[in-house]
Design a protein that fits this description.
The complex is a heterodimer of chains A (about 350) and B (about 300).
Chain A (H helix, E strand, L loop, with lengths): L13 H5 L4 H9 L6 H21 L2 H27 L7 H17 L4 H26 L1 H21 L9 E2 L5 E5 L2 E4 L3 H24 L1 H11 L11 H27 L1 E2 L6 H14 L5 H18 L5 H15 L3 H16 L2
Chain B lengths: L1 H39 L6 H17 L4 H24 L8 H24 L13 E4 L2 E4 H23 L1 H11 L1 H6 L4 H27 L5 H16 L4 H21 L2 H18 L12
Antiparallel strand pairs in B: 1-2
Classes of the chains: A mainly alpha (about 350), B mainly alpha (about 300).
Chain lengths: ~350, ~300
């Protein structure tokens, strides 16, 4: 008898819904099941949200504004995670979109309009066009080239901003007016009020997070993860990985641009360093610290890194040194970030006391 | 016609010669990058900062009265040693990881930030001048070139040819190329792979150090000099083809000319942007760069 001694496969409840999907999707669902500890992430997200909701009552205006800044950089960190954690693309130039959005919005408030919504449309359009062109070239070039091309593009933009007098040169643009944002007719958001500003930005960030999470938990995200894990096999399932990566890149660019869109309203100025490697670097450090591929980690990481930098900044001016050391420590010893560390700790405790 | 010839002679030719000298120096930095990438799949983002360390080491040695010539010999060895430490302590432990291309890139990025900030702490943000080994100007056909620049050109050319000879004409080079293709096969012949990796790192970083010494009297020394140079060096390596020795040299000469000539007519920043544009165009036409990788030639 040639009966193979394979234990019977336990029927999984998810298979019923999977039956409606096409063959490729079903295969991907089987290869990459939804994360087993998604509920842990959900609790962490809930805890973070509660903490964020009560924070303005605990900290003073300085820390409230610092928290807003950390949210804005958090969006950029989230964009790094979309690319690195899901598509397996390391972008060292997300500052390009942060800076682009910041300059466009600053220039428009200064010279064109006070309408937030018009600025939003302009930024979304410009970022979409720029990311489409750059992304198409960078993704076609594959692998590590991608990191270098994105890095170079941000550097070049920073240099152009630095040397163009018309947009302020090395001084940047100052005195950007804070507009009143009309949400609905009769309902305006007054950003002069720190509390209003804080909750508005928090709301935007939560919306972005939920939107990103939903998109990446869909079939689109599954294909991206498949591309990340085995880019050679995916084309055989009938997926063109180029378009998936490009879409992810454009999406990440828009997410990174959100930070830049709001930054001038918070600080009242823009400067060439917003394009620079320091912003891109911070974004990568933040996602490394929190945990790549979790989406929540980079948001936690951005709060941690921003407050850490502020605390360190009162003792020393050596930001880069601190960032660099965090970089090295996390790459060498904690590659899955703080969330990964927490997971491993809880897993080992589970084993010790079953 | 006379005017055009005169213009070419007085304005364009000196710029071409200048760009040629910058090109070979750029090739030195790019060679180190491309060798390391070709062998290990590692993109060393700290490479520009090793070049910076080379500049500062020259500044210190010359300042202590060691003289330019001893700096020229000692600095590449010192920078090579730093590179070796980086490989031994940082990169080797990461090599077994599946995503080693990305994690080593991140690691060297962190190292780059640390080195740059350390340079600021130790030497300050101001620019330091290094006295050239000799002054004076050579002229031929009424074009004047500082003697020191000619010397830089000569040394860089020697180093480039030495690298080519080492990689393509020696037994050591054969081992290197074989390791780039199939490390486990080479290891099964009893060749200690870790020494091949280590030596390549020392050599590549030593080249960056050499470039640092050579260029320090021309551009002076400051903490972000490596960072500014790195974007250009990466453009070179990408255009030439990651891991290609000939590609790095050809692309360095080409891009230096593009930048040099373009800055005659447009502002220097835009010349740099143009270089980047050329890089993007090359990538559109040939995503892998102009030449093949090490070992695939």
């Amino acid at each position: 008898m040639l009966q193979p001694s394979i234990p019977p496969v336990e029927p999984r409840p998810s298979l019923n819904t999977a039956a409606k999907l096409n063959v490729g999707d079903r295969l991907l669902r089987a290869l990459y099941p939804p994360r087993a500890n998604a509920w842990q992430l959900r609790w962490l997200g809930f805890a973070m949200l509660v903490l964020a909701a009560i924070f303005p009552w605990l900290g003073g205006p300085f820390y409230t504004r610092l928290a807003i800044e950390s949210f804005l950089f958090g969006a950029t960190a989230l964009s790094v995670d979309i690319l690195l954690g899901y598509a397996g693309l390391l972008s060292l130039g997300q500052a390009a979109y942060f800076g682009l959005a910041a300059y466009i919005s600053a220039l428009m408030y200064l010279h064109v309009t006070q309408s937030f919504w018009l600025v939003l449309v302009a930024v979304v359009t410009a970022v979409a066009v720029f990311s489409l062109v750059l992304g198409a070239v960078a993704i076609r070039a594959k692998g590590v080239y991608f990191a270098l091309i994105t890095f170079g593009a941000a550097e070049i933009l920073s240099k152009i901003a630095h040397n163009t007098r018309a947009i302020g040169g090395s001084d940047g643009l100052i005195g950007i007016p804070v507009p009143r944002i009309t949400l609905l007719p009769g309902v305006t958001i007054d950003l002069q009020n720190n509390f209003v500003f804080y909750y508005a930005v928090l709301g935007v960030l939560v919306l972005i997070y939920i939107g990103t999470r939903r998109i990446l938990d869909s079939g689109f995200g599954a294909v991206l993860r498949a591309i990340r894990d085995n880019s050679d096999r995916v084309p055989y399932l009938g997926y063109n990985s180029f378009w998936y990566k490009l879409l992810a890149y454009i999406m990440a660019a828009q997410v990174a641009a959100v930070g830049g869109l709001i930054y001038p309203l918070l600080r009242g100025f823009v400067a060439p360093h917003l394009f620079g490697f320091e912003v891109s670097t911070k974004a990568v450090v933040m996602s490394l610290v929190g945990g790549v591929g979790t989406l929540l980690g980079p948001l936690a990481g951005s709060v941690i890194v921003t407050f850490l930098e502020s605390a360190v900044g009162s003792y020393t001016e050596r930001h880069l040194l601190v960032l660099g050391v965090i970089f090295i420590v996390f790459v060498m010893f904690l590659p899955d970030g703080l969330i990964g560390l927490a997971r491993r700790l809880s897993a080992s405790r589970g084993k010790a006391a079953p | 016609m006379e005017d055009l010839l005169g213009y070419l002679h007085v304005v364009v030719l000196p710029q071409v010669i200048d760009a040629l000298i910058i090109g070979v120096a750029l090739a030195l930095v790019a060679l180190g990058l491309t060798l390391i990438f070709g062998l290990l799949d590692v993109i060393n983002l700290a490479h520009g900062d090793l070049y910076m360390l080379g500049g500062y080491a020259a500044f210190m040695l010359v300042g202590w009265g060691a003289g330019y010539w001893s700096a020229l010999v000692l600095v590449p060895i010192l920078v090579g040693a730093v590179g070796w430490a980086l490989e031994e302590l940082g990169i080797r432990p990461l090599l077994p990881r599946a995503d080693r291309a990305i994690v080593t890139l991140l690691l060297t990025f962190g190292v780059s930030l640390v080195l740059r900030d350390i340079a600021q702490v130790v030497w300050g943000t101001e620019t330091h001048a290094v006295a050239p080994a000799f002054t004076g100007i050579v002229s031929f056909a009424e074009v004047f070139v500082p003697t020191y620049r000619l010397f830089v050109f000569g040394i860089a050319l020697i180093a480039i040819f030495a690298t080519w000879w080492l990689v393509y004409r020696t037994r050591l080079g054969a081992v290197l190329r074989a390791t780039a293709v199939d490390p486990s096969m080479v290891a099964s012949f009893g060749i200690p792979i870790r020494w091949v990796y280590g030596l390549t790192f020392i050599y590549g970083c030593g080249l960056a150090g050499l470039a640092g010494v050579l260029l320090s009297p021309i551009y002076a020394v400051f903490p972000t000099m490596g960072h500014d140079f790195l974007v250009m060096a990466f453009a070179v390596v990408i255009v030439g083809g990651m891991g290609s020795i000939i590609g790095a040299v050809v692309a360095a000469l080409l891009l230096a000319q593009v930048q040099g000539l373009a800055s005659l007519w447009i502002p220097p920043v835009w010349a740099e942007t143009l270089v980047y544009g050329v890089m993007l165009l090359v990538l559109v036409a040939r995503p892998g760069g102009l030449f093949n990788r090490l070992g695939e030639a």
